[in-house]
Write a structure and sequence with these properties.
single chain; 111 residues; Nuclear Transport Factor 2, Chain: A; 55% strand; globular
């Protein structure tokens, strides 16, 4: 991906900035990162807390997907594989103002 599209509104400001820089770098390098066939195997809340008027929740995700980078034309794979899924574990932290507001992704950590 090189364009966050509608996903941008689901991201906290800092996370949006990080991912936008990644998209800008890929565009400048003439590369496209593709994430396909995403299969979440497990999602488990590992912690939840309130701090400074914000609700936080961290979710441990176990998943697999095709994650590969191509050239601008999409014909040549530069990194990853179109056919071999990658398994991963990540911790995603979401934040919202206290109350029934929309959650936004604020951090992704890999163990």
């Amino acid at each position: 991906a090189r364009d966050m599209g509608g996903a941008a509104q689901l991201l906290a400001d800092e996370m949006r900035g990080i991912l936008q820089r990644d998209c800008d770098r890929l565009r400048a390098e003439g590369k496209i990162n593709r994430l396909e066939n995403i299969a979440v195997r497990s999602a488990e809340i590992t912690e939840a807390w309130q701090e400074g008027g914000q609700d936080y929740v961290t979710v441990r995700l176990l998943a697999s997907l095709l994650d590969y980078t191509t050239d601008e034309s999409g014909a040549r794979v530069l990194e990853g594989s179109r056919t071999e899924p990658v398994k991963f574990e990540e911790y995603w932290t979401f934040v919202r103002p206290v109350g029934p507001k929309a959650w936004k992704l604020s951090a992704i950590q890999q163990p």
